[in-house]
Amino acid sequence: MNEKPLKKQTFLGGAAVLALSTAIVKLIGACYKIPLGNLIGDAGFGYFTTAYDIYSVLLMIATTGLPVAMSRMISEAQALKQGRQIRKIYHTALIVFLTIGFVGAGGMLIFCQQLARFMNSPDSWYAILALAPSLLFICIISAYRGYFQGQGNMVPTSVSQVFEALSKLVIGYGAAWIIMEQFDNVPMAAGGAIIGVTIGTVISAVYLGIKHRQADRHLEELGGPVKSTSDTAKQLLAIAIPITLGSAGLQIINLIDAKIVMGRLIGAAGFLQSEADVLKGIYNFCQTIFNLPCAFITPITISAIPAITAHLTLKDKKSAKMVEESAVRIMALLAMPCAVGLAVLAGPILQLLRDYGGETLATGSAILAILGIAVVFNSLVLVTNAVMQAHGDVKTPVINMVIGGIVKVIVNYILVGSPSIHIIGAPIGTLCCYVCITTLNLIAMRRSTTPPSFVRTMFKPLLASLIMGAAAYGSYALLIRVIGSQSLSCLGAICMAGVAYLILVVVLKVITADDCKLLPKGDKIAKLLRIKE
């Protein structure tokens, strides 16, 4: 007996589902990466992230353009009730995904040692080898996720992400711990930690395959015309290739940038290989914290693209604009307090998570404070890219990202090579990169579309965040004097800042009636918060 088809989620409903899974995934990730960093040290964490730097390039090629293209095309077909065309889009995309997956995974397996040497991190080859098979499975996963996301169903994506995170925690950390206990080999332990990632992608692919078979039964009922495989492939690749080339270009630039950072630390800045490994490990750990708030913006963009596309397909520009402004507002609501909090409490956060001290704490605090500011601009890049892609402009965002990546490489080459700045130059380069991309995106949007009002939409979240930042700083200064414990003072300050921010969001009426309409049971939420039209 067939299951009833799932009711399509609203834009913010889908984003909320993804955000909840992201919160769970990040909590599991913290339980994984923080103890892992303590287990294998900063150098080992550097090996771990070096493998990810290489993996990210291939992953970007495999999973950036195609899921966006699938999401847009399936959303259009869904709006027009063309169930058979949805199937055609999925099967066509899967062929492309599998081709990329086999080639990419094979390359990482065969050339793992050469890639490690290229990255000036020869001991990271264990991690690269262990991560290689996951590329094939993540391609399969991306096909499934594009299929569901295009139909506005974010639940399968969310559940599969939790499966991956749990596997990474249990299997990955367990393997690293066993290797350290038995062999005391840091490079091998970094590879063991990655094994959990690979096994997690296998479990996720199996789960999504089961859900796909259940959901696919209902498409035949929609019927509708179907295009040929060649026409579908042409449309799919016309959207995917520009996004993929630009994103891959940015990742390649980031890969070269990671090589340059290590080279400049060892060369111009005068550090030994072991010292450079530790500095890069500190930077990579701060990047992990930086990526946490940015990860909560991705659910907004994933949900926004099909929602905006569906409204534009039906010529409903007013609803499309409402979704765009809600996306910007929710982005600011999440990103700005995180940015201010990281900038204000950078030192206490690092002491809480890694027990840094002395010169290491000073270096890490400077890195994290700068990356905190970059959170806002990175979030703006994600949302503006999504809006432009939903409007059919797939080339401009990727061109702008490549330009920003080049800016990052230039800034890093100059600053990281300075002995007095060294690794702190890397987050400055990241900030300059996202400021550049944001500026170019906003200019492009004003020329081609009627963009949402960023200043008006983001003003109240900014005001609330600045007041919250003052509360966080004052709370920490008071608590450290009263109770003395740095960890408890940091946790207390974060809690007080969170409460202050929630109060400010309600008092300043940051959430609008339009936002509530996009939520499940939005009328009741609006009444609870006393939000009027």
SSE ordering: HHHHHHHHHHHHHHHHHHHH
What structural category arises from helix and sheet content?
Answer: mainly alpha
* Overall number of strands: 0
Gyration radius, rounded = 23 Å
Overall 3D form: globular
Strand content: under 5%
Average pLDDT across residues?
83
First-to-last CA distance: 44 Å
Q: What profile does the largest beta sheet have?
A: none
Helix content: over 70%
- Low-pLDDT residue intervals, each spanning 5 or more residues: 1-7
Instruction: Tell me the number of helical segments per DSSP (H or I, 4 or more residues long).
Output: 20
Structure description:
The structure is a single chain. The protein has 533 residues and is mainly alpha-helical. Helix content is 84%, strand content 0%. The protein is built from 20 helices and no strands. The radius of gyration is 23 Å and the shape is globular. The N terminus is likely disordered.
Topology:
Blueprint lengths: L10 H53 L1 H15 L3 H28 L1 H7 L6 H26 L4 H28 L3 H31 L2 H4 L6 H38 L6 H23 L2 H16 L3 H28 L1 H9 L3 H33 L4 H22 L8 H24 L5 H29 L3 H22 L5 H5 L4 H7 L5
Helix pairs in contact: 1-3, 1-5, 1-6, 1-7, 1-9, 1-10, 1-11, 2-3, 2-5, 2-9, 2-11, 3-5, 3-9, 4-5, 5-7, 6-7, 9-10, 9-15, 10-14, 11-12, 11-14, 12-14, 12-17, 13-14, 13-18, 14-15, 14-16, 15-16, 17-18
